[in-house]
Design goal:
There is one protein chain. The protein is α/β, with parallel strands linked by helices. It has 2 domains: 49 residues, no CATH class; 137 residues, DNA polymerase, domain 1, CATH 1.10.150.320. The strands form 2 sheets. A 3-stranded mixed sheet has the order 2-1-3, with helices on one face. Strands 4-5 form a two-stranded parallel sheet. Strand 1 and strand 2 form a beta hairpin. It is elongated. The N and C termini lie far apart (75 Å).
Length: 193
């Protein structure tokens, strides 16, 4: 077999790399393994990374007391704590005990990390019955002060909030059993997101 010149080796090498890239794109477009496609994509160009959405990724909005609030794509099955890490972690004034960090993320969910106010209470939480109560950090006792909410319904609201890693709107509570139209009006008047 004749020896190859340096320029021939370079040309053959370039052709091989081009074929590998074309093959990787073909596999990714046919719905091949998402992890393999992401790995190929991340190694083809420095700093270029894309994630396949065929694996059921979720997109969440992380806001509140985090270092980099924003909208993030997370893998299916990720938890609220993962979204907080992706947003740069909790800021110094974060009140992490106000949310369920172990809750699974859902597509379109907003994760609100409450801020601790000057009194140690969540920022925006009411100190008296007169002001609105923060939905993101309301305690069982605070919820029970609302007309039509007893201990059982208050516990259901907290469970519903914790399962979703927080709530973006008071209107989401109409999905909690035991909350009718009259109770929803009381909730709108006494709660804030």
């Amino acid at each position: 077999m004749p020896e190859l010149s340096r320029s021939q080796v370079v040309v053959y090498g370039a052709i091989a790399v081009a074929l590998l890239l074309v093959g990787a794109r073909a596999i990714r477009s046919e719905g091949g393994d998402g992890a393999a496609a992401a790995a190929v994509s991340s190694s083809s160009e420095p700093g270029d990374f894309s994630v396949s959405t065929s694996g059921g990724d979720v997109i969440v909005d992380v806001t509140g007391a985090v270092r980099r609030p924003g909208v993030y794509r997370m893998p299916a099955g990720a938890r609220v704590v993962d979204a907080i890490r992706r947003a740069g972690g909790a800021a110094g004034e974060a009140m992490l005990e106000g949310i369920n960090r172990a809750a699974r993320l859902a597509d379109g969910q907003q994760v609100v990390v409450p801020e601790r106010g000057p009194t140690g209470m969540p920022a925006g939480a009411a100190a008296s019955e007169e002001g609105p109560v923060s939905l993101g950090s309301a305690s069982l006792e605070q919820l029970e002060t609302i007309d039509g909410i007893g201990p059982v319904t208050a516990a259901k609201i907290l469970e519903y909030r914790d399962q979703r890693g927080g709530l973006a709107s008071v209107d989401q509570l109409d999905q909690v059993s035991g909350i009718g139209p009259a109770t929803m009006e009381s909730l709108r008047a006494r709660l804030q997101p």
